[in-house]
Specification:
- Keywords: ATP-binding, Glycoprotein, Kinase, Leucine-rich repeat, Membrane, Nucleotide-binding, Phosphoprotein, Receptor, Repeat, Serine/threonine-protein kinase, Signal, Transferase, Transmembrane, Transmembrane helix.
- This protein is α/β, with parallel strands linked by helices.
- Helices cover 19% and strands 22% of the residues.
- It has 15 helices and 46 strands.
- The chain has a twelve-stranded parallel beta sheet, with no helix packed on it.
- Helix 4 runs parallel beside helix 6 and helix 8 packs antiparallel against helix 10.
- The longest helix has 25 residues.
């Protein structure tokens, strides 16, 4: 027997090792079955040419023995559940042409031996958990025709030497984290047909040479940071099947050649009142010029609203339906036909925009509506008979809505897969959900949340409508399977949307009747009203309140306050008139109080001083920041109060105060944190920072990561606070601060000494914080009995001596996972490397802490490190004096540093550290 081909037969069981006895076997193709278990190492002795295990439920690591199959030309193990690192022996395959590894759980870096695979023509990795950068050794794959790296875990930038792969016809690299980079040099790839560089953090202008790639059929450069005008050479791309430039910063005139298959939505084109589509039919949804300070959708912003709506209900992909619950609810039908680049507007108060086409689709045509054929046993099944689909990005946009806080219900049911022991049940649909531009659900999997296929799941969120508009977006970030049950099944799916107000809408305006009043009465009322208004203005002016209010309003212009609003009376009642008994903290801009709202919600109210313009600016900065950032490991901002001279922020209440108090506070306030809890805290903080650095739309550098800025909820879940010091990592952003701000002992050397700020400064601070969590010691507390005055120094000394376990907090005893402890400390030391470029990204840190990636080798020059850190200490001691444990604000100036007021005022629960405690504690 030479061929064993059994495709799509729903075979059960495991792979038989006895098959190794078939010594003449050249092909094993078990594509799309229901097989489980591992690949038998014994198969490594077979003279196979083709091995395909695509779309099963196989697990475990890849046996290194597969590297012994020197005859192998094609290996496809995609869409399974394999894990672990790829064996370096796979780099020994001298004839390999196809290697498909996507949609698994692989970790670690691509083995360096893969640089030897010079016969490769098709290489695909995606939807996995690899670490490290895209390797430079891909330059050796000069025979490569197809390269797919989608949501693989690998980071950018795209290597410059990719230009050597001149035989490429299909290049797809998407969803890369890492530093911003210019467009790669691809002008010599004359046979390119599919070019997809989506969400790769590419900056700069579009290269004109793309217009010379005459064989292009698909060009997708969406969701980058491309600027400038579309080059005139792109006119030669008018015959390209699909062009997606969505979600960039492109300006200038909309090209006349752009047609229906061209998507230019979410850019900066000054389209005025021309509508959401160009004359040629290109999608221009959510394009606006930089002069449009309101940032509303220009093509809808000019539309006249016949009325104000206070609800929104859409049966996505289905016909109009009426649901009878507590009261009758009418859902609009959504059977609008869409294509790869579509904008459609309903007859009421909503519209939708869809971007993308289903690549490698086995179906006869793109399907943007999923129809369920089976019987559904759930409440309101009519809402789940159809669903709207999209290959990349699907946006529902409500307009003409009343401002206020709304409850958004998103209705899901996975109907693209089937139940039972069949390969058709093995699909994984994963996508992200955004509301008002904020990521509210990352890596959402309907089946996991609902507990099964064809089972309803409803997600509930609060959303703030501040300019009459509501945006709900679903985005495919390259994760999940793409070929189950057939190729082309992936991307976001939504069954229904319902939006209801959290407030009592005003009554409908009544039509005019016969109760007219006389002209004289009208004149009298108007004159009296004007007189009263003038009196009020005069009073406010004399009291100095009018000018102050105007100043605050000016400060708030241009800031999208996507958050709840509270009246001062509400917060006064909640805190019992700001009773001292409810005071739980004191910051540089005011006090923090515990409060109880009328609905039973416990809150923390930060009362900010408005005595200075600096306070107003910090207030605006903090609202603008925190309202745009939501994550399970970030402190949630419920809302704010702007009333007269009152400036207040309302946060979720954190029952267990700060991590600093739990570890270093007075003995009676400390918490007994065992090692599993401390490790969970480390991972949680890392995830929060990874969100700030790599996942949030804003890309934020926190600048003051420390124990007092980590709060603990009732379940000891860590949440990062204090975004007042955050630096938005975006060009032309008015909220960027030029001040050096942070806390000595946590600040990275390059930032403290030279003001050089990247996200790696946060990585350094995180490393210090992890050392504190592991040791139970504060980094800058003086310890007279120790050789070293600083925790980091002490850790390095113990590592050199081979005694790192001496660093561990004695309160943990001996009953803890020592291997996990050592791994965590080594990750911390890696984060604290003096050389910023050597420090890992926070997403890599998460993978290392969770054991999904190996800890990188610590590379540093001890002498250089000691010199740099000692120089930093002397600099701080001369600039700020001996009290170096406090937060510092330093302004970059050619006249030398100077100290401003402490900016750690954003600690919700400040803690004064007792340095004598360490000398007495055993």
């Amino acid at each position: 027997m030479k061929h064993r081909v059994m495709k799509a037969r729903d075979l059960l069981g495991t792979l038989p090792k006895e098959m190794a006895r078939l010594t003449y076997l050249k092909e094993i193709d078990l594509t799309r079955n229901y097989l489980n278990g591992t690949i038998p190492p014994e198969w490594g002795s077979l003279p196979l040419v083709n091995l395909s295990l695509l779309a099963n439920r196989l697990t475990g690591p890849i046996p290194k023995e597969l590297g012994d199959i020197t005859t192998l030309k094609s290996l496809d193990i995609s869409m399974n559940n394999f894990s672990g690192e790829l064996p370096r022996q796979l780099g020994n395959l001298p004839l390999i042409e196809r290697m498909l590894l996507n949609s698994n759980n692989f970790t670690g870096e691509l083995p360096k031996t893969f640089g030897n695979l010079t016969t490769l023509k098709d290489f695909r990795v995606g939807d996995s958990h690899f670490s490290g950068q895209i390797p430079d050794f891909i330059k050796n794959w000069t025979n490569l025709e197809k390269l797919v790296i989608q949501a693989s875990g690998l980071t950018g930038p795209i290597p410059l030497n990719i230009s050597l792969l001149t035989k490429l016809t299909d290049l797809r690299i998407t969803d890369l984290s890492g530093p911003a980079a210019r467009f790669p040099s691809l002008e010599n790839m004359k046979d390119m047909r599919t070019l997809m560089l989506r969400s790769c953090n590419i900056v700069g202008q579009l290269p004109p040479y793309l217009g010379d790639l005459t064989k292009l059929k698909t060009l997708d450069l969406s969701f980058n940071k491309l600027t400038g005008e579309i080059p005139s050479s792109f006119v030669s791309l008018a015959k390209v099947d699909y062009i997606f430039l969505t979600g960039n910063l492109l300006t200038g005139p909309v090209p006349t050649w752009a047609k229906e298959s061209t998507d230019l939505s979410y850019n900066d084109f000054p389209i005025g009142d021309t509508g959401c589509k160009s004359q040629g039919g290109a999608n221009l949804f959510a394009s606006f010029s930089k002069g449009n300070s309101s940032k509303t959708v220009s093509c809808l912003g000019s539309a006249k609203c016949p009325k104000t709506w206070y609800s929104l209900r859409i049966n996505c992909g289905g016909k109009e339906e009426t649901i009878y619950e507590e009261k009758e609810k009418q859902f609009d039908g959504d059977t609008i036909s869409v294509g790869p680049s579509s904008f459609r507007q309903s007859s009421t108060n909503w519209a939708l925009s869809s971007t993308g086409y289903f690549t490698d689709d086995d179906r006869s045509q793109d399907t943007f509506i999923q129809t369920n054929e089976s019987i559904l046993s759930m409440a309101n099944p009519q809402l789940y008979m159809n669903a709207r689909l999209s290959p990349i990005s699907l946006t529902y946009y409500g307009f003409c809505m009343g401002n206020g806080i709304y409850t958004v219900h998103l209705h899901f049911a996975e109907t693209g897969f089937t139940n039972g022991k069949t390969y058709k049940s093995l699909g994984r649909r994963i996508f992200d959900v955004y509301i008002q531009g904020r990521l509210v659900q990352k890596d959402f999997n309907i089946v996991d949340k609902a507990g099964g296929i064809s089972t309803a799941f409803i997600m509930k969120f609060n959303a703030s409508v501040t300019s009459g508009t509501l945006e709900i977006r679903f985005y495919w970030a390259g994760k999940g399977t793409t070929g189950i049950p057939v190729r082309g099944v992936y991307g976001p799916l939504i069954s229904a949307i319902s939006v209801d107000p959290n407030f009592e809408p005003p009554p409908e305006p009544e039509t005019s009747g016969g109760n007219d009043i006389s002209v004289g009465a009208v004149v009298g009322i108007v004159a009296g009203g004007v007189f009263i208004i003038l009196l009020i203005f005069g009073f406010l002016w004399r009291r100095g309140l009018l000018g102050q209010q105007n100043t605050l309003e000016d400060d708030l212009k241009g800031v999208d306050l996507q958050t709840g609003k509270f009246s001062f009376r509400q917060l006064k009642d909640a805190t019992n008139n700001f009773d001292k008994a409810n005071k739980i903290g004191e910051g540089g801009f005011g006090s923090v109080y515990k409060g109880l709202l009328s609905d039973g919600t416990v809150i923390a109210v930060k009362q900010l001083s408005s005595k200075s313009k600096q306070g107003n600016r910090e207030f605006v900065n903090e609202i603008g920041m925190i309202s745009a950032l939501q994550h399970p490991h970030l402190v949630k901002l419920h809302g704010c109060c702007i009333e007269g001279n009152q400036l207040l922020l309302v946060y979720e209440y954190m029952e267990n105060n700060s991590l600093a108090r739990a570890l270093f506070g007075p003995e009676e306030s400390q918490l007994k944190l065992d090692w599993p809890t401390r490790h969970k805290i480390c991972v949680g903080i890392a995830r929060g920072l990874a969100y700030l650095h790599e996942e949030s739309r804003l890309k934020v550098v926190h600048r003051d990561i420390k124990a007092t800025n980590v709060l603990l909820d009732k379940n000891l879940t860590p949440k990062i606070s204090d975004f007042g010091l955050a630096k938005l990592d975006e060009e032309d952003n008015t909220h960027i601060s030029t001040r050096i701000a942070g806390t000595y002992g946590y600040m990275a050397p390059e930032y403290a000494m030279r003001g050089y700020l990247t996200d790696k400064a946060d990585v350094y601070s995180f490393g210090i914080l992890v050392l504190e969590i592991a040791s139970g010691r504060n980094n800058t507390s003086y310890r007279s009995k120790e050789e070293s005055l600083y925790l980091l120094d002490w850790a390095h000394l113990l590592k050199e001596q081979g005694n790192l376990m001496d660093l561990v907090d004695p309160r943990l005893g001996s009953d803890f996972n020592k291997e996990e402890m050592m791994l965590t400390i080594n990750v911390a030391l890696l984060c604290c490397n003096v050389t910023s470029t050597v420090r890992p990204t926070m997403s890599s840190v998460v993978s290392m802490l969770e054991g999904r990636a190996a800890v990188q080798e610590l590379v540093s020059d001890p002498n250089a490190s000691s010199f740099e850190i000692e120089a930093m200490r002397k600099h701080f001691q001369s600039s700020f004096g001996r009290n170096t444990g406090e937060s510092q604000t330093q302004t970059a100036s050619t006249e030398g540093p100077w100290t401003g007021s402490s900016t750690s005022a954003h600690d919700l629960y400040p803690v004064k550290l007792d340095s004598t405690y360490w000398d007495n504690r055993k």
